[in-house]
Amino acid sequence: MGGFIFQQVDKYEAARERMVTQQIVSRGVKDAATLRAMRKVQRHLFVPREYERDAYDDTPLPIGYGQTISQPYIVAYMTEVVRPSAKKKALEIGTGSGYQAAILAEIVGKVYTIEIVPELARESEDRLKRLGYSNIICKYGDGYKGWPEHAPFDIIVVTAAPDEIPQPLIDQLAENGRLIIPVGAPSAVQELILLEKKNGKIEKSRLTFVRFVPFRRL
Ligand code: SAH
Q1: Which of 17, 131, 140, 215 is deepest in the core (most CB within 10 A)?
Q2: Dihedral sign, CA of 51, 56, 62, 67?
Q3: What is the Å distance from ligand 1's center to 67 Cα?
């Protein structure tokens, strides 16, 4: 017999496929690159061990420090809406587990991501490095100010909900860029808003209602 290779067996492949077909495709997400990324990224590697078996359920999950990894469908929906492609550069506010950053990094050229909880910033940076995402640049800090050194961004994804859209993020959006953000009071239902910059002007659309963790300030 040949040598035994210690290759990581992906015991959740079937569960992940069910997640994509039953939660994401069924609700109308069609973008091929987004679906490919959702099929590839092993969500169970982004949740605490005690939730590993729930990783492909239709729900957000706790990741510690009062924060959550978003529901898979919401991650897919937000990814599709910002129209990711290989040449684009993305900024994410709220790295959390690093899952949304990984999904974007499967499609776009480069992802910059900022997390305000120092422990989560360190954990997600370690995780993304371990998983080989050399095109994700992590930073600890308050994402309110964006990341001016690397602006403008074709895509800005905010995964925590402020009362109002931070002006620096609007300023750092590239021409033809898309910014998606949940807006609303922490205890209430929030609205998912899409901003597009066209000829220097901002167009706003209200997409759907969501519930995200609050956007914090340092
Ligand atoms: N995208 C994450 C979702 C994490 S929940 C994932 O895929 O797992 C949202 C995250 O936003 C939390 O980790 C929270 O700590 C972080 N956050 C809240 N306010 C922030 C701010 N001003 N700047 C950066 N991160 C922030």
Answers
A1: 215
A2: positive
A3: 7
Q: Which of 26, 70, 124, 134 is catalytic?
A: 70
Q: Could you tell me the residue ranges of all domains in the chain?
A: 13-210
Q: What is the reported pTM?
A: 0.96
Active site residue 124: no
Residue type, 129: K
Q: List, for residues 96-135, the tens digit of each pLDDT value.
A: 999 999 999 999 999 999 999 999 999 999 999 999 999 9
Whether ligand 1 lies within 6 angstroms of the CB of 115 is answered as: yes
Find the DSSP H helices in the chain: 13-18, 32-40, 72-81, 99-105, 118-130, 167-171
Output the CA 144–ligand 1 centroid distance in Å.
Answer: 11
Angle, vertex CA 60, rays to CA 56 and CA 62, nearest 5: 105
Tens-place pLDDT, residues 28-67: 999 999 999 999 999 999 999 999 999 999 999 999 999 9
133 close to ligand 1 (CB < 6 Angstrom): no
Which residues, 6 or more positions from 5, have their beta carbon under 8 angstroms from its beta carbon? none
| Cβ–ligand 1 contact at 147 (below 6 Å) | no
Residue 180's SS3 state is: strand
**Encoding tokens for residue 209?**
């209602």
Q: Whose CA is nearest to atom 17 of ligand 1?
A: 94
Query: CA 144, 150, 151, 152: dihedral to nearest 10 degrees?
Result: -140
d(CA 198, CA 95): 27
